[in-house]
Every structure is written in C-alpha cells, then in structure tokens.
C-alpha cells in the first residue's frame, strides 16, 4: 500500500495542477471514508485573498454503490488498477470541471444564477461506448441516432429534478465512464454523487457562472496526501 501511495504521489505531484487551482475561485470537495465507501461528506469553499473559506455546514452525500475509482479529469490518472470504467458503479475520483445544469423542474430554484436547461421527454444521456455521442446529453429528435443504450433522463425521477454535469471523461474515451452528475436523492448511485434536495439547492444558489468552480472528489486519506501540494483547503 505504501508503494502504491508513493507511485500516485509521484505521478500526480509532477503535473501542473497549481495553475488549475490558482485560477479557481470556488471549490466543491466531496470525500469518502475509503475507496469502497458509498457515502461521504461534501464541503463548499470560496477563495479569499487570505485563502480558502468554508461556506455553509458540510452535508452528507452518496457515491456509487461500489465507492470511488480514479476518473478522467484535470488530474493525471495514475497507472494503477483502480480506474473508473463504464458500469463499474463507482463515482469518479479526481479534479473535475462542471458542465451544464439540467432538471425536470420547469425552472431552476429561485436565486440560482447558473444557466438552466429543462429536461424534455427526448433528452438522452448516451452511455453506448460505440456511439459518436458517447458521454453526451442530446435531444433524440435532433441527433442522428447511432446508439443502442442511453439514459432517458425524463424518467429518472426524483433524482434528476436537478442535475449538474460533472466533466468526467470530457474526451469521451470509450469505456471510461459516462453520464456523471451531481443530483438529488441521497442514496448510493450508479456512479453519480447524490445529496438531499435542500443541500443541492444550496449548492446551486452558491454557484456563480462568472467564477471558476471545480469539484475535488477523493477518499479522505488521499485528499490528505495531496492537500499541501495541491493547496487544498483544510477540512477540519
């Protein structure tokens, strides 16, 4: 185990992550107790001239039913066995940008500034690895259909009442995982990160489309390992 941690440290620390975090003004942190844990805690931080400041009280979240695995994001994925794959029921670990906000509701909650798109009966998230639109959200009536499987997003209720895209696997590599979101309904998932609706609304109201926001999602021990090098906020 010690050799594995040293390997991960050597690979990740050698990469230019400082600039990513220097340009970040808001940070969502989600930590699990361990790689195989399906529950954890979420924190929100704003960057001030004096450093990171936690806002709101932390709240509980649920990860994939099988825990976490290294995803495809702004970090380098270590050459270890625990990498996320399609259908593994694990949430992606690493550093990720955020994408669009969707939902089943007619409009976003009052006070939300982030652009909002309503899910329609034809909104699909494609999880077919062979499709040219793998890991994309599309409208079926305006997209040439070349996929055999997808999520019918309008049928995933209540989870998709509010859905914030996590930019996992943005290069859409086959088999590396698709359709990863932050959403409501705080129970273990197929790979997303879920929380109570009230907490999701708090997160959405806190978001500012003019301020760069990243998601850092890791087991707690791995977070501690990289906290100083990545200049991550303290969770104490």
List the helices and strands and how they pair.
Elements lengths: L1 H12 L4 H5 L3 E7 L6 E10 L2 E12 L5 E3 L20 E13 L12 E3 L4 E4 L10 E3 L10 E3 L9 E5 L14 E4 L8 E3 L1 H10 L6 E7 H11 L6
Parallel strand pairs: 1-13, 4-5, 5-6, 11-12
Antiparallel strand pairs: 1-2, 2-3, 5-10, 5-13, 7-8, 7-9, 10-11
Features:
single chain; 236 residues; alpha/beta; L,D-transpeptidase catalytic domain-like; three-stranded antiparallel sheet; 4 helices; 16% helix; globular
Write a structural description:
The protein is α/β, with parallel strands linked by helices and 236 residues long. It has a single domain, classed as L,D-transpeptidase catalytic domain-like (Beta Barrel). The protein is built from four helices and 13 strands. The strands form two sheets. Strands 1, 2, 3, 4, 5, 6, 10, 11, 12 and 13 form a ten-stranded mixed β-sheet that branches. A three-stranded antiparallel β-sheet has the order 8-7-9, with no helix packed on it. The chain is globular, with a radius of gyration of 17 Å.
